[in-house]
Structure formats: C-alpha cells, structure tokens
Task: structure prediction
Amino acid sequence: MRWTVGRVKITRIVEIAAVGGTRFILPHATAEEIQKISWLAPHYATDEGRLRLNIQSWIVETPTQRIIVDTCIGNDRQNRSVPAWNGRDSDFLARLAEAGYPAESIDTVFCTHLHVDHVGWNTRLVDGHWQPTFANARYLFGKAEYDHWAAHSTEGEYKAVFEDSVQPIVDAGRAELIDSDHRIGDGISLIPTPGHSPGHLSVLIRSDGAEAVLTGDVAHHPCQMRRQDWSSTADFDPVRSIAARQTLFARFADTPTLLFGGHFDPGRLVRDADAYRLVPQPAPE
Result:
C-alpha cells in the first residue's frame, strides 16, 4: 500500500497484522472502553471492541533516497518475550522486493527507537552470524536512544535485542549515531518525542507543500488520541509519553498533515471535543 506526499512515496510493508490480544500493551483499552470510542470501528477496531494493530515498516522514497523506517521483528530471533516472535521464518524481505524495494536498494535505515519490534530486520542470520540486512545502507540510531540501551541492555529480551539487532550494525561500521536535529535527507527531519523510550524520535516529511509525520510509538493505537492518558506498558516514562502525545497531536491536528503510526493505518488528525480523532486515509494505490 502506497501514499504520496508531494514528491515522496510512502509504502507500508506489514510483517504481522493482529486483531485483539493487545491488553498486554494497552491495559486500559478494554473492549468496553474501546466500544465507547465509536469512530474507531471498523478501521482501527472491531465492533466488538478488539483493536487492530500491525507490526510494520514504512519505506520513504524521495527523488534521491530509499529509506526504511523501523524494521519489525525479524527472523530467527530467540529470547523474545512474545512467544510468536521467536524463531520466525517470514517472507518479509520477499514482500519488500515485490513492492519494488529489494534489500540491496535501501540506502538508509532509520529506527525511531530501539525496541524489539522496530529493529529486528536490521540484521539477518548468515552462517550463524548476524549481518546487516541492508548491505548498502547507513543505519541511523538516535544517540540518546543508543547510549541508553548500550548501558542498560544487560539481561533478558533487552540484552538479546541489542546483541542481535543493534550491536552487529555498530560492529560492521554501518551505524551513525545522530542528534535530534539531524536531517535524514532533503525535506526529511526529526521531531524529539521521548517518553515511550528515552530518545524516541518521530519523522517529519515535507515535499512540494505537502506534509506527513511518521510518529513511531508516540501512540500505539488511535484510541490514545481520544485517551491521551492511556500509556503503554512498554513506555519508559509514562508521564513524558503523555506529554509527547499532547504536544505532537496539538501541532498536527486540523492540518492536512498525514499521520503514519508505528502500528496502525494512516489518517488525518482532527480535534474532537476535548481530544482528537483520526480520520482514515486509505492508500490511493
């Protein structure tokens, strides 16, 4: 599925699509509470109040760059907290190629943050070793984000993710640690949105008068636009995550800007009483 923002093409590659089973990440989002937010169905929830969520990557193609934003779970992983994320053997790279973006054609990888479901395809297992998946790309990691996880990924899933999906990129000399004022390319800049993770960054795209923002995990689901106080169990700092949502939503509400979430379908944000509502924007192609 592909959207156009000025001269920029944004293409979605879904690794996993899920309905329901999301209480572990958004515990306040019970079926009863979701049914109270009537505009969520059918695009973002079922009539029964079950959430629709994806694990997905966004390909941002400009006239001069091919950028993949966030790289999902990946294959052959171990020590993941979600059992279904272990030992995966998906055709993600084949679907990427079918969309016109074989791995070797990607020149930039950007991770909004370094959580398990945003870094997995940074690497792939080759002869028992983790190698960069995108061999011709530079990998951009927020410096504040990287420094935190380099110091705190000492056990469990955090250790496994850092060792198989982040550190091999650094060891291969492909990583570039960037500040929040870094420009990824012409018309592509960053917005600091810490809270979900220590150095979380969102991506702002401007081209020929059109605008889009890739929000990462500022919100896991559009229900958090109605209930900005619903923080995720994965949020590093729930108070700052609420502040990040409030600031980002206030900035882009009632504008033509397209919002591309880390885990949900794109839309345009509009004010709705004392909160916000996401109006779905289906892909035109």
